[in-house]
Amino acid sequence: MAENEIEYEAKGTYEAALEKSRQIEEDIKVNPSKYRVLTGDRPTGRLHIGHYFGSLQNRVRLSKMGVPTMVLIADYQVLTDHDAFDQISQNTKQLVIDYLAAGIEPGENTIIYPHSYVPECNQLMLPFLTLVSNSELSRNPTVKDEITKSDLAVVNAGMYTYPIHQACDILFCKGNVVPVGKDQLPHLELTRTIARRFNKKFCKKTPPVFPMPYALLSKTPSIKGLDGSAKMSKSLGNAVYLSSTADETAALIKKAKTDGERVITYDPVNRPEVANLLMLISLCNGQEPEAIAASIGDGGSGKLKSVLTEALNEELRPLREKRAQLEKEPDYIRQVLTEGAGRAREIAVKTLDEVRSAMNMVI
Ligand code: TRP
């Protein structure tokens, strides 16, 4: 396909994605059955409160609204930016425990599965690879960023092609809403490009096979690490995990970075660390961060930290209790995954049939 024939959509600015996300958010309340949510995580470790407030709560809310929800565990994707693979299965099971403890309920409407168990989904990779150019793959900003941050000895081809695999994840089930963070927007744009090109090239005489999926951007501001760094992450040791104990939570918050000013105010620009802690309290108790700051007043960092410790441990207590119970039920966790994979496969087989027939490959 010549470069000038490639249909570019109105170039994906963040504002356009945000606007679309707001529209979906409104419509989904009225027409939940028009949508299918596909979301997922790489099984690289346990989930922390950044995931909980940023995406988990949103997923639970959507599935409770009656939107069919597919929760995918992207185990193959771990191989693209990690050399180590010894923990994948264990991490997958811990992810399921985190999901269930947070309130995701597998059943009629919601399934959880690892994509490595859905061969028909993975097979979409072959036609999709032919719909994208090398240069499109190498200019993906999220991929470039991950290459810079990874400690891979060699940058493998999977690193460049996993966004196509992500398109397989989304399109095999005809997902049209993908709750993600800003960093995943380039992958969503590529997924739409693939869907559009597939429909245009192969579905001239038949209805289009794939819908256009859009991001549902979380309204929660991104949560910084407790050491004040830009992101809460396992490798920086600045995260409170859903699986942390109340004491571990208290210890980490005690070490959290603040500033020397005694009077607590909510000032995200000039006092980002204090603002982050206030925001976390706000996410737990629903009060405005300004009001929380005013009530702490000249109690200083000590008071701020004790209020946060109590609010967070209180918020997470039921989840942690459920988590501890689920840890004792490995057979059930395995069953959730195998049943989920079975259901995902049924969907994938149907889509692959349509794809095969559109591509003129039925024998
Ligand atoms: N790339 C995502 C991440 O790193 C994980 C992922 C894989 C995903 N496939 C997906 C997310 C499909 C949403 C939809 O977090």
TrEMBL record:
PROSITE patterns: AA_TRNA_LIGASE_I. GO terms for biological process: tryptophanyl-tRNA aminoacylation. It is an enzyme of class 6 (ligase). Its EC number is 6.1.1.2. GO terms for cellular component: cytoplasm. InterPro entries: aa-tRNA-synth_I_CS, aa-tRNA-synth_Ic, Rossmann-like_a/b/a_fold, Trp-tRNA-ligase, Trp-tRNA_synthetase. Keywords: Aminoacyl-tRNA synthetase, ATP-binding, Ligase, Nucleotide-binding, Protein biosynthesis. It catalyses: tRNA(Trp) + L-tryptophan + ATP = L-tryptophyl-tRNA(Trp) + AMP + diphosphate + H(+). It comes from the Bacteria. Pfam families: tRNA-synt_1b (PF00579). One of its GO terms (molecular function) is tryptophan-tRNA ligase activity. NCBIfam families: trpS (TIGR00233). Belongs to the class-I aminoacyl-tRNA synthetase family. This is Tryptophan--tRNA ligase. It comes from Treponema rectale. The gene is trpS.
